[in-house]
Design brief:
LysR_HTH_N, 7-stranded mixed sheet, alpha/beta, WH_DNA-bd_sf, transcription, DNA-binding, transcription regulation
């Protein structure tokens, strides 16, 4: 019979393409992954991987077994969730992947509540952009993901992923206090924002993709990932930015916010593997995130 740990090693190699990346995902050494793959090849009597430059790639037999490995691991996930549901106790470990704003604005309170209400539950947190967090979730390396996306740059949910929406996070224009739009009587139209010097997230970030779609032709002069840094640059009079409200609980001196029409909003979503839905620990974590959202955005 094939040992499950060896299937996990093959699944990780199939997902990440190198033994080093697979070992990082599995929290073990590269040699341990290589040993598991070697034992699996001897068990099955088939060559499962072969070198491809600095990477390794699956053989045809490897691809066949990796597909079945994913099915087996999903079934084990569902079995563990069903057993946990029968006990109806919030125990074990839950690891959450979340975008940076959620790590700062939502997770501290949610994780604190979980620790206070469920002392037998161990929690972990990984920061990552929505695409990376969703990939970690789908591959089973985290239990739950907090994700953000915009209507103009929406995420696509893979098969087997369940979701619930926490709410919509409104974005406003952030300008220096002496800016021509700082004292606007009402929402400004997007076409009024042409010609500004823009401060934005770097290319590849979902917020950058969104800005490029709602204001085509904009070429940001400053590309920085941290919203706090964007606010500092705005306060220095270097440009304007479009920031979600969850990302700016307080504003520095010298900065004003201006509503924009139509109102830009991003969706904040919690996602988990559908096979794990019965786990009491997941339900408790989602409830804690809902409570944190209500505190931050209620």
């Amino acid at each position: 019979m094939i040992e499950v740990g060896r299937l996990r090693a093959l699944d990780a190699v199939a997902s990440y393409g190198t033994v080093l990346a697979a070992s990082a995902a599995l929290h073990c050494t590269p040699s341990a992954v290589s040993q598991q793959i070697g034992k699996l090849e001897r068990e099955t009597g088939a060559t499962l991987v072969e070198k491809d430059g600095r990477r390794i790639r699956l053989t045809e037999a490897g691809r066949v077994l990796a597909a079945h490995a994913a099915t087996v691991l999903a079934a084990l996930d569902a079995a563990e969730a069903a057993l946990a549901a029968q006990r109806d106790t919030v125990t074990g470990r839950v690891t959450v992947a979340a975008f940076a704003t959620a790590c700062r604005g939502l997770l501290p309170y949610a994780l604190h509540r979980l620790a206070a209400d469920h002392p037998d539950l161990r929690t972990g947190l990984m920061e990552g952009d929505p695409h990376h967090a969703l990939d970690l979730l789908q591959r089973g390396h985290v239990d739950l993901a907090v994700l953000d996306d915009w209507p103009e740059a929406a995420l696509t949910w893979p098969p087997g992923i369940a979701t619930t929406e926490l709410g919509l996070d409104v974005a406003d224009l952030v300008v220096p206090s002496g800016h021509r739009l700082a004292s606007a009587a009402g929402p400004v139209r997007r076409d009024q924002l042409r010609g500004e010097r823009w401060i934005a997230a770097p290319p590849g970030a979902i917020c950058y993709e969104w800005l490029m779609r709602v204001l085509p032709g904009v070429e940001p002069d400053f590309l920085v990932g941290e919203f706090e840094t964007q606010l500092t640059l705005v306060a220095a009079g270097l440009g304007v930015a479009m920031l979600p409200r969850l990302a700016r609980p307080t504003l520095p001196a010298g900065v004003a916010t201006v509503a924009v029409a139509p109102r830009p909003t991003r969706r904040v979503t919690v996602a988990w593997r559908a096979a794990s839905a019965a786990r009491p620990a997941l339900r408790a974590t989602v409830a804690a995130l809902r409570e944190s959202w209500a505190r931050s955005y209620g």
